[in-house]
Amino acid sequence: MWPLVLTLVVATTGAYGAEVCPGLKTMYLPPQCINDRDKCPQNSTLEPASKVCNMCDGCTAYIQKDGECEPTSGISCKPGYECDEQELKCVAKSCSCQYKADNSYYKSWTPRCDGFDYAPVQCKGEKPTGRCFCFDKKGNRIFGEQLWANAENMTCACSRQVQELQDQGRKDVTLHCNEQGNYEELQCDDGLCWCAEEKTGKPISQILPENMMIMLPCYDKLNVGSAYLRQCESLLIAQKKIEIEMAAHNSRNPNFPYVNCELDGSYGAVQQDGNQMYCAWKDKSRIEGYAAELRDMANMNCRCARDKKMYGNLIQHICLGNGNYNHEQYTNNGTRYCVDADGFLDDNACPDSSVSC
Ligand SMILES: *[C@@H]1O[C@H](CO)[C@@H](O)[C@H](O)[C@H]1NC(C)=O
Ligand SMILES: *[C@@H]1O[C@H](CO)[C@@H](O)[C@H](O)[C@H]1NC(C)=O
Ligand SMILES: *[C@@H]1O[C@H](CO)[C@@H](O)[C@H](O)[C@H]1NC(C)=O
């Protein structure tokens, strides 16, 4: 029955033909089910099946940025944009990813947007020296980074997937992401193991029960040994399993010690020692004297401390005592400039700046 959807309707200004899907006035071009974003024609965007008559993924025509629009015409501005009622043209929604991209909002990076959302890979600075980071859809940094010059294969698909699974309520996800947020080769989760394609996570082997992990072609005895979970995460997953068990019996969580792991299974940058929080390297060892009191832990990210340890003198910025970047920096001649939480130029990052988003 779906070929009925496939009527090609050319959307010219004001004339947009019959409804293709009952109740939906958008046009679908071209007339096929499409799985590849790059195959959509100009000025259209891939939409999931849920929006295309619940039948298959397809391309929806949109009016582009600055294109003429009519609030009631039925053809929408592209995702992240809205029809400005005074100017009757498509403008970025205030404070959206597109708004920041269109308005040179940050000094050292132009956000990449994906519909309304932030794209997974965001690169700051300039190509030879800059760095790319994994971001969630809302624009928060998540696990995974790489020098821009080496980031051609970076997808952040693993970091994104773990976060989405956790947001859906799965507390005990054990997928392993590599340092750039892609998939490690060997994956185990929820009692099953498989070999994964690095960029997409697609299984490229049989999927076996965890106790048969060593049969997989990507299993490497020297690196993995007998246990898939790494030191930090085995502690974390043990806690999570108890939490899940206790929640099933309506018991309150016991007071577990603080455990902070990265998605590659290593220790996170912020660690606890009694009443003190400190900045740690991947093996939990302290990075110099960077520390803060327990009550200040929410503001602590240790990104400056970690970067200094990783890149040495390449990082000239001053760190705060808690290991974060100091947002206010000064050049040798005393000129003030501002950097964001990742140490990149950003005029909006100083405490006294008048940020509107
Ligand atoms: C896409 O949009 C741009 C800007 O609105 C317009 O100039 C161009 O003709 C459009 N292309 C197609 C194929 O409709
Ligand atoms: C990206 O992937 C290709 C193909 O696997 C590989 O040849 C290339 O070295 C990779 N680039 C980097 C920077 O790792
Ligand atoms: C200070 O140095 C910066 C570059 O580091 C330069 O742009 C600025 O003009 C200098 N200011 C003064 C007062 O010399």
TrEMBL record:
Key word Transmembrane present: no
UniProt keywords, alphabetically: Disulfide bond, Signal
Signal peptide limits: 1-17
Q: Which residues form the Thyroglobulin type-1 domain?
A: 94-154, 155-218
Tell me which SMART domains the record gives. Answer: TY
Its domain of life reads: Eukaryota
| One family name in Pfam for this protein | Thyroglobulin_1
Q: Got any disulfides in this one, which pairs?
A: C158-C177
- Signal among keywords: yes
Supply the InterPro entries for this chain. Answer: Thyroglobulin_1, Thyroglobulin_1_sf
What is the protein's name according to its record? Thyroglobulin type-1 domain-containing protein
- The species is Cryptotermes secundus
